[in-house]
Amino acid sequence: MPQYPEPYWRVGLDIPSFPKLDRDIEADVAIVGAGISGITTAYLLAQEGLKVVLLEASTILNGTTGHTTAKITAQHDLIYDELIHHFGEEKARLYYQANSDALQFIKDMVNEHQIECDFTEEDAYIYANTGEGVKQIQVEYEAYKKLGIVSEYVQSMPLPLEMQAAIVMKQQAQFHPLKFLLQLVQAFVGKSGIIYENTTAVNIEKGERPSVITRDGYRVTCKHIVSCSHFPFYEMPNLYFTRMYAERSYVLGVKTEKAFPGGMYLSADSPKRSLRYTNVNGENLVLIGGESHKTGQGICTIKHYEALEAFGEESFGITEIPYRWSAQDLITLDKVPYIGRLSADESNIFVATGYRKWGMTNGTAAALLLRDLIVGRDNPYQELYSPSRFHADPNIKAFITINVDVAKHLIGDKIGIVRRSPGDLYSDEGAIVNVNGKRACGYRDESGHLHIVDSACTHMGCELAWNSGDRTWDCPCHGSRFSVDGDVIEGPAEKPLKRIELE
């Protein structure tokens, strides 16, 4: 299997490093998670004159934000007819407006501060090439008209792809997310903001001045705590693992024979295909995304990259594939993010999660809302995004579906005889193996060294599955991911897997 560099966004970028927290400290606000929502919230609150501490379990800009396709748009797939059905026209319109506000905020920041981040305005298309897809497009277009969303229904588009109909939103945008956020990081530090990397938050001690407790036992005591980590590091009382599920999707960065005409594209039909470009040293790199599936489930993950490559070859002709990566996204019961106060009883603890693949606008909207809640300003989107909301339709059905699936994997995956032993593994192969009569995760690296760890996820004990595309162990229940040596890559798991030494 060929080795690939980091996602394009991080390659060649001079990202600063920050120390690990090694003592107890105090602040006005502690923010956990240094992705787009965490960094933007930290920047906004520092601009308000608050003392803000930003904690990151790994290194900044290395999680979902560093694995995005970086579309800045309010066109979030076929969502607005569904939102009208479940929430009503008023809240569906608020969702559109919140994401349009986020786009405008990013645009204003780029212009006012002259941020060089490859920002370009682009038209965004959802297109269909089947009869069923066209029907969905037509229904969605009617929803656009009800909500007053400026758009067009078209039967052609610049891309050389087969299509019958599309909806286009004009003047959406794309950018280099890390170049943009690095400017916010610098401005935040310039306002005496403090960042700690490799500092894992594991708990909250409640009170009038609550504290974030780290894995090493240190605490950050403050007036307000904000969880902007990809999966909330503090789940009580909302039990987010029962109210969200994780999906993985895949991206190829390719050079093509056919010129890319500009614009951003998403297919209404399955399998989903996402397309945009970015400029690299004067030539376009086309980003081909898609192949979503629930984390830890489905076919061999390398097959998803192969499917995207086949699509790209057929559509554009691929001359080179310099970059390849995958991303993980959390999806809530009703597909709207959870942003706001943790609960009515916890007025000084906040959460932001569940961006459903649209983190550039949803994450920015989260930062704007969190800023207003913390400084005491009115915000029209507070009720829409409230983490405590519950709507019988669709929440009950989605809740049952998610948790029945979890139960199936929690119990069913532990049944069955494992016949392979660690010695059976080929170079660069991972599989569930039998070690002393017990299941274990085994991987043999290209130098021949074996990496053996426990096969039960440390979150709730689900059996892990091998991800051959990313060389990780993934949990099919709640989306936790671990390295071949058992280190936590994605939550909700907080503890690493136990390493097993072979006799």
From TrEMBL:
It holds the Pfam family DAO. The keyword Plastid does not apply. Residues 417-503 form the Rieske domain. InterPro entries: FAD-dep_OxRdtase, FAD/NAD-bd_sf, Rieske_2Fe-2S, Rieske_2Fe-2S_sf, Rieske_Fe-S_prot_C, YhfW_C. Keywords: 2Fe-2S, Disulfide bond, Iron, Iron-sulfur, Metal-binding. This is FAD-dependent oxidoreductase.
